[in-house]
């Protein structure tokens, strides 16, 4: 198994880098446990394919619009480190205190109650394309994407 524990803002997860092809990702991780295909209602039938690796608690998304390259990563295991910080499973306040020094930019937050009454919170930092998903005040998932250079 290659190095895939360290989340690098805007770049990837250890040896997994945004912009990799599906074949390159398979060369590192092998075949996914599950493949989910869907279209985004906001886009014009842009097809997305998400690969789930259950043992690693890892999901990777590729979309048609970008030529099927890696565009989003989501992790939910305590084994992953965000810029060196182990955050999964910590409370909202603990996570916010730990990431404060990283200067991620403006924060947006949305409180959600699901159909079962579970309290959820989505915290996003658009400047660095990172989101944190909290369930019952504990961080359950980190989701991030490449940081695009607007001047390119």
The average pLDDT score comes to 92
Could you say how many structural domains there are in total? Answer: 1
Q: Give Rg in angstroms.
A: 16 Å
CATH top level is Mainly Beta
Overall SS class: mainly beta
Strand content: 35-45%
For the biggest sheet, the summary is: 8 strands, antiparallel
What is the number of E strands?
13
Tell me the strand order in the biggest sheet.
Answer: 4-5-6-7-13-12-11-10
Helicity range? 10-25%
Low-confidence stretches: none
**CATH domain fold name:** protein yfey like fold
Shape: globular
- How far apart the termini lie comes to 34 Å
At CATH's second level, what is the architecture? Sandwich
Order of helices and strands: EEEHEEEEEEHEEEE
Write out key terms for the chains shown:
mainly beta, 41% strand, 8-stranded antiparallel sheet, 2 helices, 5-stranded mixed sheet, 152 residues, protein yfey like fold
What's the SSE blueprint?
Elements: E1 6-8, E2 12-13, E3 16-17, H1 22-29, E4 34-39, E5 47-53, E6 58-63, E7 69-75, E8 81-82, E9 85-86, H2 92-99, E10 108-113, E11 119-125, E12 130-135, E13 138-144
Parallel strand pairs: 1-8
Antiparallel strand pairs: 1-2, 2-3, 4-5, 5-6, 6-7, 7-13, 8-9, 10-11, 11-12, 12-13
What does this structure look like?
With 152 residues, the chain is mainly beta. It has a single domain, classed as protein yfey like fold, CATH 2.60.460. It is 11% helix and 41% strand. It contains two helices and 13 strands; from the N terminus they run βββαββββββαββββ. The strands form two sheets. The protein has an eight-stranded antiparallel β-sheet. A five-stranded mixed β-sheet has the order 3-2-1-8-9, with no helix packed on it. Strand 4 (34-39) and strand 5 form a beta hairpin. The radius of gyration is 16 Å and the shape is globular. The relative contact order is 0.17.
